[in-house]
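Morning!

This is the sequence you dropped in the shared folder:
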Amino acid sequence: MSVCPKQSEPPKGAAMKGGRSATHFPPQAYSSTFRGPPGAATGAPPRSDSAPATVAGPISHQHQNALDLSLPASPVLLKTRHSHWFQLSGHPDSLAPAGPGTVWKKRSPNSDDTEGRVYEELQRDPLLQDIVPRYYRQVEYQGEQFIELQDLLHGFQDPYVIDIKMGTRTFLESEVRKTAARPDLYHKMVAIDADAPTPEEHRLQAVTKLRYMQFRELQSSTCSEGFRIEAMKCRGSAPVTDLKTVKSSAEVLHTLDVFLGGREDMRQRLLARLCDMRTKIDQSDYFKSREVVGSSLFIVYDDAKLGAWLIDFAKTNRLPEGRTVDHRAPWEPGNHEEGLLFGFDRLISMVGSIRIPERGGRFARPLSVSVKS
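The structure's back. Tokens below.
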């Protein structure tokens, strides 16, 4: 029996912040030049939760001072009630606050505009625009490239936040085409598990990139569950950032249970939101023709509301003409399957199986997550 509610939208009161509409930007807002540091107004008018969601094309802004930012990789920024920033996962300093309710995310050097293009395409799709952060523009700043996105923490008060890497494969096929065995990857492998290499690999003291990447995926729940928990922050606790080795179903279930903090209402809202997102991805022609590698689910809730969005599309690629994927089939070299929807299936099943007892008060469950070293 399906754990998803019959309705395709979350129940009343379970409004998803990512699904709230944005201000209609007039064309001139995307042709102006803004000068000033991040944190100042971006030139776009303030957004309204009641206006229709519309996104215009990219813009290049020129600014006066350099940002010291590094490479982005599934970043999650937490702003507490004291306005302190915490980056839950990804490379340090990969995001910077921009205008009210927006952030800048730095593009990797020498990368194309894959992520910005994917956000633009998703934003234009009525079926999919509410499952991702709102995309505003591209920004050029001191010769570096950024994309400006909705700050998903904006409006939440001291929330619970979790970053979940989706899929059974988090590396591109192009990353593992070289078949030469590498000593550096062998040493990385034995540093994690001295018994992992085969006798032949021990003799050569080298492993291929594909072998190492698959070995690394097996250290977490990526292969077995189709997702892995990257990091988490609960109310009143420091961020927990060493969750990549949470592997067994029991460990994953316990971590999700801790994240829900004894809130049955939020468990139901999250379940409804995940089911809605899965249905939209499953029905989408766009996703049928895309390989989505390394994307993450960003989930946040506080006393009053819950939001969940799919983020990180730097490794999302259009498939060759005539090829499609269902995001559930096992990966074989060349078939482009990455297990995105398999991960949704397993996550929904786990959230649906959590039983939260009746209890007084809110956020009653303490943070207690054990991580294997």
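Headline: Confidence is low (pLDDT under 50) at residues 5-85, 360-367.

More detail when I'm at my desk.
O.
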